[in-house]
Amino acid sequence: MIRVGSWSLATVRAENFRLDGGAMFGVVPKPLWSRAHPADERNRIEMVTRCLLVRGEGRVVLVDTGMGGEWSDKERDIYAIENGRRSIVASLASEGVSPADVTDVVLTHLHFDHAGGATTRSDGRVAAAFPNARYHVQESQLRWALSPTEKDRRSYRPDDFVPLERDGRLRLVRGGAEILPGIHVEPTQGHTIGHQIVRVGEGRGAVVYCGDLIPTAAHLPIPWVMGYDLHPLTTMDEKRDLLARAVAEQWLLVLEHDPVHAAVRVRHDGEGFASAGAVEGFS
């Protein structure tokens, strides 16, 4: 656990899963990315869904929700989903938090590996998995998710977010905002329209949850961007800006999908950005 101002922060894992390594690293050649992320016989690399739990100010805030449990056997095989004891509910329980305790859920975006645990199905009805929470998401991301392109439509599952809109559970954010005292969201548009990163704290020592802007430590180099990104050149510009700020202000970056490195600080080695080392306190 780490403290930032009046907030205490911990990471909680929801699932282990796998995605195609080539898709995760775009135009980067496999001999390079496979050094850090060896692929299995189906060219998939190991990943996790690492969520952020933030407590303080009378609030319990969860950033992203993992993939959830509503997956067919075929889908579980495709993505190698393992979420038995590592489901988000079980992981929160290990921190002494029940779904009813959560007051706010911040969704970086609505792709299934980030918003899949936002809802739950009971007696044939899909409803909020966190019954007392407000769900914060960029308005532009919701509009995009409701009408995605052929490139990214399989990344969205309407049951993950349409019931939240139906039941009035969404707080739609427009642009950068302080959603709670000391907790800020900043939109980034390279991965998908309306993606947002989450920053806890001001200035030096802040903690930033990168979402899919920088999903793993291997994505710290500016050109290493995902094939999933809708606008990869925009991603590169956004990474350059974030990493420069992280170096200057000694920010801690939380990595959502890295199976080994939960969080890193960043340095500039004269040629580019690199990890300055993993940080104790997060897993």
Strand content: 25-35%
String of helices and strands: EEHHEEHHEHEEEHHEEEEEHEEE
Low-confidence stretches: none
Helix content: 10-25%
Distance between the termini: 9 Å
Please tally the β strands and state the result. Answer: 16
Strand order of the largest sheet: 1-2-3-4-5-8-9
Query: What is the overall silhouette?
Result: globular
DSSP helical segment count: 8
Please give the largest β-sheet.
7 strands, mixed
**How big is the Rg?**
17 Å
What is the averaged pLDDT score? Answer: 94
Structural class: alpha+beta
Task: Please tell me about this protein's structure.
The protein has 283 residues and is an alpha+beta fold. The chain contains 8 helices and 16 strands. The chain has helices spanning 21-25, 30-36, 73-79, 88-93, 112-115, 139-146, 162-166, 232-249, and strands at residues 2-4, 7-20, 44-56, 59-63, 104-106, 119-122, 125-128, 134-138, 170-173, 177-180, 183-188, 195-200, 207-209, 252-254, 263-268, 273-278. 47% of the residues are buried. The mean pLDDT is 94.
